[in-house]
Amino acid sequence: MVDLMQTAAADISVSERLQSITVTTEYLGNYQSVNHVRDLPLIYLDEPTELGGKNSGPTPLEMTLCALNSCTAMIMNILRREMNFDLGGVRFKAEGIHDVRRAEMRRTGKLYSQVEPIAYHYHKVTQRVFIKTSESDERLEHFKSEVERLCPLHALLRDAEVKLVSEWERER
Description:
CATH superfamily of the largest domain: K homology (KH) domain
CATH architecture of the largest domain: 2-Layer Sandwich
Helix content: 25-40%
Mean pLDDT: 91
Structural class: alpha+beta
Strand order of the largest sheet: 1-2-3
Low-confidence stretches: none
Strand content: 15-25%
Shape: globular
CATH class of the largest domain: Alpha Beta
């Protein structure tokens, strides 16, 4: 951990740096919930119809992948300015592999709560980053390592011991 007394933040207390984020969620029935974030439009989370939902929004696991891509983009924007890095454009594709225990439930007749999961969360996540840049390979690799080190969603998945594969590819 960094000693704040040795940084430019020496005059800032930890309590001034920590900030609360609050959302509220209402369960609407079956698999559907609605989430309230600040004064933004409502965010519905649901399952596809083939899995018993109303398909009114992404699943919580899909939202996690959206959050990973968006968080990565935001950190890239911050570092682009700090590092004077040429970022001509970027897009993302994330894929998560998770244990849908239904097959084991059908095979064994067990309830969901009785099936031992392969993983309680994602088994593996692959994030593909398609980046437009004129930077050298060395600068791009350094930029990538800093983005992954500083992105809170990368850290969350790493700390949960999810196998996280990050593939960056230059686009013309």
